[in-house]
Every structure is written in C-alpha cells, then in structure tokens.
Amino acid sequence: MKKMGIFLFLLQMSVSITQAQTLLRLSDCRNLALENNKQLKIGRENITKASEENKAAFTQYLPDISLKGAYLYNQRKISLLDEDKFLPVGTVMPDGSFGFTPEQINNQWTLVNGSPVPLDANGNPFNPSADPGKILWKEHTIIPKENFELDIHNVFSGVVSVIQPVYMGGKIAAYNKITGYAEELAKTMNETGIRDVILQVDQAYWQTVSLAGKHTLSQNYVSMLQQMDHDVQAMISEGVATRAEGLSVKVKLNEAEMTLAQVENGWQLSRMLLCQICGLPLDENIVLTDSATEAVPTADETANDAVNEAFANRSELKSLDLATKIFKKKEALVIADMLPTVALAGNYIVTNPNSFNGFQKKFAGSWNVGILVNVPVFHWGEKQHKLRAAQAETRIKQAEMAEAKEKIELQVNQTTFKLNEAQKKLRNAGKNKESAEENLRYANLGFKEGIIPSLNVMEAQTAWFKAESELIDAKIAVALGQAELEKAMGLASKD
User: Tell me: the pLDDT tens digits for 134-156?
Assistant: First the structure.
C-alpha cells in the first residue's frame, strides 16, 4: 500500500507538471505575437482610421445640409424718424403730379410776365418747384415718430441651407483617390510590421530551440564525463591509472558543468524573450515542438527568381508606390485650386420679427436658390509655387522607390548567399558529426580494452561535443536563413 501511495503521488505530480506546460509550435508563437504586439494593434487602428477617412471623403459628393438658429437681444429700438413729421395737404393735379391751388397756401401772389407767381415770406417771388420749402401751407397732416419705431429687443432667426457641389475643379475626386490610397498604404505598412514581427519571433524561437538542444547535449556531455571520472577513479584505486589522469578528467568535468550552467541560463533567458514577444508571462513554462535534432530543408535558392518575387511581394515597394500616387494626386489638388468652382445653394430663412408684411412680431420666412461661382484670378504666383513643390515631392518618392528596389535586390542576394552558405556548413557539420561519433566509439572500445588512455578518450569526447554543437548551430543557421530570405522575398506569413 505504501508503494502504491508513492506511485499515485508521483503520477499526480507528473500530470500537474504536464498541465503547467504550454506546448507551442512556430505558427503558435507567430499567431500569439501578431495578436499581442502593440505596434500591430496601432497599425490595425490606422487601417480603421484610413478607412473611415475614405468614407468621409465620399460624402463630399453629396449635398451639405445644415440648420442654424440664432437669438439676439438689442438694447434699443430702431426709429425710422428722428421726430414727428408734418406733411402738407396738397392736390393731385390733372397730370398726376402733386401740387396746390392758391386757396391751399398762405403765400401772396404777383404777376411776372403776365403769369401768377407766389411770394415768399420776405415778399420775393420764387419758383415753388425749385424751392418747395418757401411754400406756406395752410393745412398739414402729422406722421408720429412713435409709429415708425421698430421693436427689435428680441430677435429670433433660423435658416435651413443646402449646398450641392457641381464642379470643384476635380478636388473632390482627387481627395477621394488620396484617401483610398491612404487606406491601402495603412494596410501595406501593417503588412511590413507583420513581417518584422514574424522574423523577430522566428529568431527568438530558433534561438530557444538551439539552446534547448545544446542544453540536452551539455547534459549528455556532463554525464559522459561523470562516467569517465567514475571509471578513472576505479582504475586509480586498482593502480592502473595515475592521479594526474584523474585530475585531468575532473578539470574537464568542471568545465563541462560550467558550460552546462551557462547554456541553461541562456536557455531560460531565451525562453523569457520568446514569451515577451508572444505576449505571455515571462515565467510561462513553454515547450517548443521543434527540436535541434530534426532535419531541416536544404534546397538551394536562385537569387534572380528571389529578386523578382521580392519586387512583386514586398510591402515596402507597395507602400512607396502608393505614396507616389498620393503625391501625384496632391498635384491635382493644387491644380484644382487654380480652377473655378461651381455649387448650387438653397436656403429657407425664418425670422421673428419679420418685415414681409409690415413690421410684425411673429415668425415668417421665405426661401431662395442660387448659384455660387468662385473664379481665382491672381494670387501672386502662390498656386504655381505650391504646384512645383508638390511635383518635387512626387519626384522624391519616385527616387525613393528606385533606391528601395536596389536595396531589396542587395538584401535578397545577401540572404540567398547566406542561406546557401549555411546549407553547405550543415552538410559539412553532418559529416563531421559522423566522423566524431565513429572516433568516439573506437576510443570508448579502446579505453575498455585498456589500449587507449583516458586523455585520448576525453579528446574524442570533446571533438564529439564540438561536432554536435556545430551541427546544431548549422541547423539553426539554415532555419534562420530561410526565415530571413522569406522576409526579404515578402513571403513571411503567420501560418
């Protein structure tokens, strides 16, 4: 029963440890990093922003409808007269003009060249048409000042306005194109960020795989030297080996244990870095499915084909192409500022008080329609300067595109050569490993037979450890070279 209890306890511990581990493939790490990376989240928001701006640009084709209202309090009223007015009472003459008869005025009359002419207050004759102020009217009608006062203490107004662009010089179409290109640009820039993150994940992932493999290798090397130390100590006890041989084995064992400790620390730090990139807690117990002992693809790449594929796939080139198109459309915006613009306008205006039927303190309104035309005439060459500046920006982007193609071609060639070199080293490392294993096998047989000293066995063990370590480095170099080439060719993906 006691043994059964110990067995169940160990089984439970094994299950809990297994459950605490997080098994990750390379694709899992990529997906986690893409989901949790802060810069990629910003990139996704930039795409949303550009998409909404593109939709907003389309609304410029549609009529603009607005409703405005206002209230105004005035301290004083408006009076159309400065005082009460007295108007003379005259007669409508047969010809329809306003005039008077001698009975309607107090002026004296005299004859001038046989015609009656009125006299002013001083007794001098005058022409009533030229000097109507000298007429002495007998009767007047009064216009009171207070009847011409307008109460504008409280004024309310409102307007419904509709403006429909008809011709804006191509500005609206150019703006829509620019925002459309900007949305595509945000997507391509996010693709560039995705490829950068994927390469970063691959580098951390394969570095962790490498250190995990070297950790296992170092453990095996330490176990091998521990067995050698045990055997040599037994031989010293039997008098068939010297203490110097025993000390040499212990020195080698200490060096191997120190190397194991360094590799273990590096492995832990590498796992923490991978967790940080993937957005996992740093102390997450992750286990990677890939192993440094597995085979890796060794197919050679053709540089010319890779360059052509990179030109077709690299998001950086797409971004520069879109940027060039954007600046080209900015030229169209500047040209549009030089052209006339035409728009239709309609308004309905309501006020209180209103003057549509006398002066009334109530709401009343009316509508109007019209055409708005703006024709630029002279701006001291400002538009021409802006146009030349926009054309210069377009040429800058074209030059950057040409430079980027040169750099991408160089990068693809460098990564292709690097990958091919890593594959050659891998093949040589495989051959060296086979030779080292064979040499170690013969050394162990000779040591057991007593014909090979322990020093030669340790040399064979060291050569084997070095060959195994170089093979791991070569495999990881091929994996990293393949990841770098995929990024350079624009093929990196999360799958």
Answer: 888 777 788 887 777 888 889 99
CA distances from 298 to 8, 211, 422, 470, 482 (A): 47, 22, 9, 16, 10
Contact (Cβ atoms closer than 8 angstroms) between residue 423 and residue 300: yes
- DSSP string covering 369-419, please? EEEEEE-----TTHHHHHHHHHHHHHHHHHHHHHHHHHHHHHHHHHHHHHH
Residue keyed to tokens 């809990």? 16
For 261-305, the pLDDT digits (tens) are: 999 999 999 999 999 999 999 999 999 998 877 766 555 555 667
Token pair of 300 as six digits: 């050679």
Closest C-alpha among 434, 435, 429 to residue 474: 429
The three-class DSSP label of residue 91 is strand
Tokens of 446: 């000779």
Please check whether residue 350 is in contact with residue 368, taking contact to mean a CB–CB distance below 8 angstroms.
no
Residue 467 CB burial class (10 angstroms; 0-12, 13-18, ≥19): buried
**Which amino acid type is present at position 204?**
A
Within 59-127, residue ranges assigned H as helices are none
* 3 state DSSP class of 175: helix
Q: Quick one: pLDDT band at residue 124, thresholds 50, 70, 90?
A: confident
Within 116-242, residue ranges assigned H as helices are 171-238
Q: Please check whether residue 315 is in contact with residue 135, taking contact to mean a CB–CB distance below 8 angstroms.
A: no
* ∠ Cα 109 110 113 (to 5°): 140
**184, 483, 182, 482: which is closest to 315 by C-alpha?**
184
DSSP string, 21-51: -EEE-HHHHHHHHHHH-HHHHHHHHHHHHHH
The CA distance from 456 to 459, in Å, is: 5
Helices in 279-314 by DSSP H: which ranges?
Answer: 303-313
Average pLDDT in the chain: 87
